[in-house]
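User: Predict the full complex structure for these chains.
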Amino acid sequence: TQVATVFREAQRTTASHRKLAVTLRKIQEACCYEPTSAKKSAVAADDFDEDDFNNEFVRCVLRVMPVKKSEGVGEKTIRFIGLFLRHSIDKDNEVMGEVDEDTSTMPETPSTRLTAQLMENVLPLMTAKDKFVRYRSTQLISHIINSLDAIDDDLFQKLRSGLLKRIRDKEAMVRAQAVLGLGRLAGNQIEAEPNSDGSDDDASVGLLEKLLEVLQNDPSADVRRSLLVNLPILPNTLPFLLERARDQDALTRRAVYSRLLPALGDFRHLSLSMREKLLRWGLRDRDENVRKAAGRLFRERWIEDCAGTPPPAEGQPVEPSPPSIDALLELLERIDVVNSGVDNGVALEAMRGFWEGRPDYREAVTFDDNFWETLSAESVFMVRSFNDFCRNESNGKFESLIEEKLPEVTKVAFYLERYIKVLIDAIKRANGQDEDDEEEEDTVEQEFIVEQLLHIVLTLDYSDEVGRRKMFALLRQTLSIPELPDEVTKLTVDALRDICAPDAAGEKEFCSIVLEAVADVHDTIVDDVPADDDESFHSARSEVSGDSTPTKGGHGKSKSPPALSEEEAAQKAIKEILINMKCLHIVQCMLSNVAGNLQQNDHLVSMLNNLVVPAVRSHEAPVRERGLVCLGLCSLLDRSLAEENLTLFMHFFSKGHTALQITALHILTDILNVHGAQLLSSNPTLLKVYIKALRGSGNKISPEVQAAATTAVCKLLLGRVVSDHDVSAELLKTLVVAYFEPASSGNQSVRQALNYFLPVFCYSRPENQDLMRAVALDALHTLYNVREGLDDDDADVDDEMVSLSTIGACLVDWTDPRKCYTPGTSHLESEKKKDVNGDVHLDLARDILERLGGNVNKEEKKVIATLLGKLYISPASSEPKIREVYADVCSAVEEQLV
Amino acid sequence: PTEPTRQRKEKQPFEIDFAAPLDPSVAETIYTQATSNSTISMPKKDWKSKSRNLLPDDKHFSSRQLLSLFLKPKARMSNRRRLLTGRAFAFGSAAELQSGGGNDVPEG
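Assistant: Here is the predicted structure of the two-chain assembly.
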C-alpha cells in the first residue's frame, strides 16, 4: 500500500521523483535487507518481504499499461520507474561493492531481481491486442534500457528480440518507442564489440542494419526522427543519418541541423562536398525553420569549430569565442568559397545570415590597405558579402558601416585595376605553359577575386566625379582585353551600364563605349595576320583555343589563303572563331542591358548588320548559336525585326539540339512578352511549337525542353500575353494534362513549376478561373484515357499517377470561387468570402450535367458525377444561373443521370 | 509544489488509481494477446519506401521566374503587367508557394 502511495504521487509531477525514489528505496530496503537494522523495520511492515515488494511493484507498473498515449500520467510514471530502478541498482551496488569488487559478471541483487521480474511481466504485453498496452509496455522497456548501464545477458536477448518485432508494429507510436530502446542497444553493442565473440558481432551488425533500414523506410516521420537522434553516430551510420537532411518531414530535416550536426562535433571531418550539400539543402529548404536551424549551425557552430576554442564542459552554456577574422576566413575556405561563392552558390546566403546573426563580427571586421593589397578568394568574398549585406538588408540600417569600413570609389578602382592585371598575367602565363595545375588553380582564384571586386563595383555610388571617371576608364579599357574571361566580361559590361546615366542618352553612350571595345577585340584578328612576324606569339595563342573550347578546327581550312601552311591556316581559323565568339559575347552582355529602340541607335544598327547577321549565317555552329541569341535580343528592341525572324527562331527550335531548342523557346517567349501575342495569333505554327514542347517525351522532346516550355507558357498565361480564348484554353489544358500525366512524374522542373503556377493562375483572376473551368472536363477526359491506357496489372499504377477523383478534386478546388482573389480584400479575410459570386461552379455544374447526358464512358461519368457534390453553391451567384442549374439538375434526376 | 494550480488542472481529468483492485475489463485489456502477429504489424508492403522518404530536388520555382524575361533576367516585363507582382504574392508568402515543391505534387 505504501508502494501504491508512492506511485500515486509519482504520476502527478516529475519534480518530486527524486524524493519519491528515495522513499521507495527505503521501503525496498526494509523488505529485502530486513536483518540489517532494526530502524528500518519501523518503516515497513515486518511481514512484508522481497517477493511481496516486487509483486506489489509490478502490480503498480501494470496499472500504467492501458493508459492512453495522450495522458501525461503514463509518461511520468514510466520515467519514475526508470529513475527508481537506476537509483535502487546504484544503492545495491554500493552495498555489494564492499563485498565483491572485481567480479566481471553482474552480481545478483534485489534490484536486478526486481528488474528481471518486471521485464518478464511486461515483455509479453508487447504483443497485446490493445495498442496502448503495446505502446506503454514498449515505452517502459525502452525507457528502462536507456536508464540502466548494464543488463543481464539472457534478459538482454529477450528484450532485443521483443523490441525487434515491434519495429514493424502497425502503430507508429509503438515503433517510435521500440527504436528508442534498440538505438541504445545498437550503440552498446558496438562499443562492446572488441570483447565480444563472433555471434554477438553478427547480431549487433544485424540490429544496426535493421534500424538503418527503418530510418530510410518507415512511413512515420516520428519514427525516423526518433532514430535520427538516437542512433549512434558511426562512420557506417553517418551517411544514412545525413541523408535525412532531405527527409520529407520538415521536423526531421530540422533535427538534422539542430540536433544531429551540432552533436557530431567538428564539421571539418565531413567531406567538402557533404558540407556544401548540407549547407545548400538547409539554407534553401522549403521550410523556414529548417533554414533558420541551418543558418544557426553555420554562424554559431561551424565558425566555432574554426575559432578553435575547446568545446565547453558538458552542461555549461556554450560561450561563443570572441570574433576571429582568421576563423571566418578558414570557415570560408572550408566551404570552398571559390566554388560555392559563384553566382548561384550557397555561400552568399550563408554569409548573409552570418552577418545578420553575428553583430560581433560586423563590428570586428576591418578592411585596411594591407587587407586590400593581399586579397585572397576568402577575404575578397568576406568583404563582398559584407558589402551586399550592409546595402541590402534591414532597409539600409547598416549602410553607415559601409562608409565607415569600405574605401572610396577611386581606391576600389585602383585595387580592381591591380587585380585585373594580376589575372591577365596569370592567364597569359597559363596559356604559355602546358597544362599546369597549380597555375590553373591560381588563375581560377584570381578570376574569382576580380569577379567579387566587380560585384562590389556594381553597388558603388558614382556621384563622385573623380571616382566615376577613373572607374569608367578602367572598365572601358578592361573590356578591350581579348583574354578577359566570360563572367568577368559580363560583370564589367553590367558595371559600365550602371556608371552611364540611366536615361536614353546614357544608354547610347554605353552602347558606343562597349562597341568600341568590341572593335578593339575584333581588331586583334587583323593584328595577327602577319603571323610570320610573331611566330611564337601566334602559336602560344592557338594553344589556348585548343584546350579551352570544344570547337572543331577543321571547318575553316578551305578558306585560308595559300600562303599559309595548313596548320597555320587551321590555327588562324580557330582564332577567328574565338575572337568572333568573344565579340558576340560582349554584345550579348551589352544587349541584355539595353531597353531603347534599336532603329534609333545607329551603333546598334551597324552592330546588327556587321556582326550579328553574319554570325547567324556562319558555318560554325557555336558562332551561329551565339549570333542567334544576339539576334533574339535585338528582336526584343525592334518589333519588325522580331516579325521577320520569327520563322528563323522556330526553325532553330525544330532542327536544333536540346540547348538550342531551349534558347529558341526563350527567344520566342520573350518576343511575345515584349511585343504582344498578336504574333502568336497570326502564326498557327508557333502555337504548335509550344504545344509540341509542352507535351514532352512522346514528341522526342527532352525533359529540359519540356521544362523550359512549361515555364514559358506559364509566363505567357500569367502575364496575360495570350489573350485569344481558344489559344489560352489549349495551352492551359495542355499544362493541366502535363501536370498529372505519369510521363512527367520524373520531371521535377515541370511538376514544381506547375505546382506553383496552377493555383496562382486560377486564384489571381476570375477570368482565369473561368478558363480553367472551361478546360477542366476536357483535361479530365484526356487524363481518363491516359489512365485507362496504363497497364492495370501493374501494381504501381497509383505510384505513377494519382487517382481520377484526386484530379477531379484539384480541378474543383482550382475553380472554387471562394479562393479567388477579389480586388480590395486580402487573402486573410477569406472567411468573409462566403457570399462571393459563385457562377464559376454553377457553370462547371452545367458542364458536368451536359457530359453526363452525353455519350462518354460510364466509368468516367461516375468520376465526374461525384464532383457535383463538391461544388460550392453561393447565394450571391446570379439568380438566372441558379435557376438554370436547378432546372438542369431536376431534369437530370428525372432522366436518372445522377 | 512549485506550480500547484497548473498541475492540478493537468491531472484532474485523469489519474491512475494504484490502490484499487484491478478492474476485470482492464485486466482483459492488458492480458489479451493479439490473435496473430499480422494483426498488430505493419503490412509488408509498407516496409520499404520507394523514395526512401526523401524529397525530390527542389527547383526553387518562384514568381520571380515568371515575371522576368528569359534573356534579360534583370529587366522586368513591361509596365502593363507589373500589377501582377502584388497579385501573385497575395496567395501566401513567396516561400510558402515555392515550398509547395514536390510535396503536393502527385507522386509518381
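Chain A touches chain B through 101 residues (CB under 8 Å).
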